[in-house]
Amino acid sequence: MVFIKHSNRGGVKVTSKAGKTFTSKIFNTSDDKQANSLNFYSSTTKNGESKFLFNSNMNLITSNKNGSIWGMFLDAEENGKNILEFNGDKNEIKTSNDGTSAWVYGIKTSSTNGENNIKLKNTNITTNSNYVARSIEISDENLGKNNFELENANINTVGNYSYGINIESSNKNNGSGENTINFKGENTFNSTGGKSAWGFRIVKNKVNRGEGTKITSDQDSTLNIVSKGNTVSHGIYLSHEEENNKANTTFNGKVNIDVSTNDQGYGVYHSHKKQNNVTNTVFNNDTVIRINGNGRKMAVYNETPETTPDDSKSIISFNKKLTIDGEPTDPALVSSGKNAEITVAGKDDVNILGNIFTSNKGKVTLNLLNKNSYLVGLAKNNDTGIIDMKLANSSNWLMTDDSKINTLDISSEGTVHFSNTENTATLSVDNLKGNGGIFKMQGNVQAGKTDLLSIKTSSEGNHYIEFKNMADSKSTGTEVLQLVESSGKAKDYKAVFSLLNEDNHVSVLTDDKKPSHPKAVIEKGAYLYTLGRATDSKIVSITDANVNNWYLFPYEDDGKGKLTPGAESSLSFSNTIYQINLLNTETLVQRLGEIHFDKTDLKPHNAWIKHVNGKYTSFANDTIGSFSTHYWGIKAGFDWLSLRNNWVNYNGISIENLNASTYPKRFEGKTKISGKGIGIYSTWLNKNNDIYVDLVGKMMRYKGKYDIVNYSNENIKSNNASINSYLLSIETGKRSYLLQKKEKAFYIQPEMQLIYQFVDDYTLHSSNGLKSMTKNSNSLIGRIGFRAGLDFYGDSVLSPYIKLMYNKEFLGSVVNDLNTARIEMNNKDDWFNYGVGISHENKKKGRQIYLDVQRSNKHLIRQDWQVNLGLRYSF
C-alpha cells in the first residue's frame, strides 16, 4: 500500500501552504507478511530533481498488521535528486507494526550516485516494531549523497532492535559517498529496545572514498540521546569495518547522552576494524553522558588496530564542560590501538565518575583545570597505552585503586586523593611535572602498608604530601613508611616533596626556648611523624642511599620522638590529677588553723570553711611539653572536741569541691577537671608538751576532659572521664617556745608528714581515635620541715609564721597505654616548699581566721603560688 509514489526521472514539485494540516493514514490489516506499506515514496534518476516543500503541518501515519513499513522512502540514482522539507509548526511521521518479523522505518533514504536533501522542522517521528525499528535510515551511504537537517525534532523508536538514526554502507559495492546531518534547536532521540537500542548507529562495512559522514550541530542547539536496551545499548555508535572510511562529527551545541542496559552499554563508541580510516568526533559544548544499569558499561570507547598507519586516526575530543555520570567501578574513558585518542581539554568543569584505561598505544589526555573539576576512578595504561593527565587550580582526582599513567602534570594545588578505603594504593607515573601539586595519602603504620607514589623516569617541581592523621593507629613511634619511590636515573629527578597537615597546613609549634621548626607533622597513634629523605631521619635509621626517595618517619625533638597534642593532653591529664592530689596533702594548720589556741578555751564543736587557690607549672621533659594548671576550691568540715587525759581530740568530717584548668604551651586548648570529696580526720593535741598528731582519710571523685586544637587545626575532644582517688595521711609535730613573755612568745615547730594516695585506673577516648588507658598509680610523699613564728596573747590572739618544708616523692610512677604504646611518667622527685602565714583568733566570738601562702622551688612540677584562706568557729 502506498499513498504517494513518484518514480521517474524527476521534474515533479509538490508544495503545501502554511497554516494548513495535511494528514495521510494507512492501516494495512493483511495477515500476509509480504504486505508492505509505504506512505510516501520518491525515486528520482538520470539528472532529475523532485521537490516536496511542505509548509503545512504534515501527518503521515502508517500501520501494518504484519508487513514492513516505510513512513517515507526517498531514493536517488544516476545523478537524480530529491528535496524534502517539513516546515510546518507540528509534523508527525508515525509507523507501527503488530507482527514479529517486520522491519519498520520512519524515514529511509538511499542514494547511488544521486542526492537526497531533507529538512525536518518541528517533526515527531514515532517508530514501533516487535522486531526492527529504525526511525531514520540512511542506506548505501558509500554510494551517494544524503543530507539531513533536523530542527526541534523528537524521535521515539521502540523495537526489539531499536535505532534512532542508522547509517550503513552498501552491502555489495565499494564507492564514494557523502552524508551530512545537522541539528538545530532542540532535538531528542529516545530509543527503547527489547534486546538492543542505538541512539545513533553508523556502520561502514564497505569502502567509501568520498567525504564519508559528517554530523554537526549549531552552537545554540541541544541534542538529547536516550537509549535503553535490555542486552545492548548505545548512545553514539560508529564502526569502520572496512578500510578507507571517514566520519567527522562536530557538536557545537549541548549534548546529553543517557544509556541504560542490563548487559552492555556505551555512551560514545568508536571502532576501526581495519586500517586507513579516519574518525573525528568533537564536542565543543557542554556534554553529559550518563550510564545506568548492569553489566559491561563504558561511557566513551575508542578502538583501532595496533598496527594502523600514521595517517589513520580515531579521535574523540571534549572541549568544554564534560560530565560522565556512572559508577566509579565502570570504565569512563577507554582507548586502545595506535592513534586512538580521547582528549578532554578541561576548558570548563570536568566531572568524571569512572575509570580510565588505555592499551596497545591508545591514548587518553585528561585535563582538570579548575576547582570544580574531578575524576573519581582509577587510571591504567596497561604498560602499552598512554595516559597523560594535567591537574591544576585545586582540581581533584580521587584514585579508587592502583593506577599507572605516563605523565602527570600537577600544579596550583591540584590534588590526587589516594584511595580512601582501608586498602592502600600505588600511583605509578613515568614523568611528574608541574609545581605545587598535592598528594593526599594514608596508611597503616603498624602493618607498614601505605599509599605510594612511584616515579619511573623523571620528576620536577615542588609538591606536597598530605598524609591522613590516624590517631587511632597503634604506633610505637619507630615505624617508617616510604611514600615516594624514584627508580630512574638520579639526575632526572628534581622534585622536592614537603608534608602538609590537614586543614590549614600548620607547621609544628615549639616551646619559646627553641627555634621554630619549618617541618609540618601528621599524627600516627600517639606520635608525630614528618616527611623527608632517608638521611633526614634521626629517630630511626633508614638504609637507603637514593635521595629521591621520600619517607614518613618519626618527628625528632631533642633527639627523641614527639607526642601528638592528644597524647600530651592525655599524659598531662594524669599529671593534673597528681597535682590536685598534691593539693590534698594539706597540713593541719592549713585545714584548721592554729589548734594550740584552743588549749585554754575548749569548746565542744568546731565548724570551718576554707578557700584554696593556686597555680602549678609543669616543665617540659623528654615526653611532654610544659603546661600550667590553675586550681581553686572550697573545703568545709565539722568536728567534735573531747578530752582524753592530757589530749585534746578533734574527730570530724570534711567535704570539698576542687576545680582545675590546665593550659598547654605548645598548642591551643585546655583540660578541665573537677572533683568532689569526703573525708574524716582525727587530730590529737597534748596540752602539756604541745605534741600533735593528725590522721586523715579521704576519697575523691574526679571528672575531667580536654578540648584542644592540634597542629592540623583540628579540634580534638576527649570523653568526660571519671577517676577515683583515695588518701591516707599522718602528720605529727611539736611546738617549742624559745622566748616566752607574757604578751608574746617565739616558737619553732618541727613537723613531719607521710601521705599515701591511690588513683584508680581510667580511660580517655579522643574524638580522633586516640585511646589512653591510665593504670592504677600509687604515691607516697614524705614531708619534713618546720614553722617558726610568734604567738601574741590576749583576747585576740595573733600568730604570724614562716615555714620551710622538704618533700620527697618515693613512688609517683604513672603508666599510660596510648593505643598500646606504653609510656611511663615518673613523678619521683624532691622539692622544697616555703611560705608565710598568719592566724587570728577572737576568743570572745570563738572565731579564727587563718591565711597560708606558699610556693615551691623549681622541680618537675613547680607550685608558683598557693593561697589558703580559712575561717573556723568554735562553739
Provide a quick synopsis of the model.
By secondary structure, this protein is mainly beta. The chain has 2 helices and 70 strands. Among the domains are: 1-180, no CATH class; 565-874, Lipocalin.
Largest sheet: 28 strands, parallel
CATH class of one domain: Mainly Beta
Percentage of residues in helical conformation: under 10%
Q: Give average pLDDT, whole number.
A: 92
Report how far the terminal alpha carbons are from each other. Answer: 127 Å
How many helices?
2
Topology:
Layout: E1 2-8, E2 13-16, E3 21-28, E4 37-44, E5 49-54, E6 57-64, E7 69-77, E8 81-86, E9 91-97, E10 103-112, E11 115-121, E12 123-128, E13 132-139, E14 145-151, E15 154-168, E16 178-184, E17 186-204, E18 212-217, E19 222-229, E20 232-240, E21 246-251, E22 254-261, E23 264-272, E24 278-283, E25 287-293, E26 296-303, E27 313-318, E28 322-325, E29 331-336, E30 340-344, E31 350-353, E32 355-359, E33 363-368, E34 374-376, E35 379-380, E36 386-391, E37 396-398, E38 403-410, E39 415-417, E40 426-433, E41 438-441, E42 443-444, E43 449-450, E44 452-459, E45 462-467, E46 481-486, E47 496-500, E48 522-524, E49 527-532, E50 550-554, E51 556-557, E52 560-561, H1 565-583, H2 588-592, E53 605-618, E54 627-644, E55 647-664, E56 668-686, E57 691-709, E58 715-717, E59 721-734, E60 736-740, E61 744-759, E62 762-765, E63 771-774, E64 777-792, E65 796-809, E66 813-818, E67 821-826, E68 830-842, E69 847-856, E70 861-874
Parallel strand pairs: 1-4, 2-5, 3-6, 4-7, 5-8, 6-9, 7-10, 8-11, 9-12, 10-13, 11-14, 12-15, 13-15, 14-16, 15-17, 16-18, 17-19, 17-20, 18-21, 19-22, 20-23, 21-24, 22-25, 23-26, 24-27, 25-28, 26-29, 27-30, 28-31, 29-32, 30-33, 31-34, 32-35, 33-36, 34-37, 36-38, 37-39, 38-40, 39-41, 40-44, ...
Antiparallel strand pairs: 42-43, 46-50, 48-49, 49-50, 51-52, 53-54, 53-70, 54-55, 55-56, 56-57, 57-58, 57-59, 59-61, 60-61, 61-64, 62-63, 63-66, 64-65, 65-68, 66-67, 68-69, 69-70
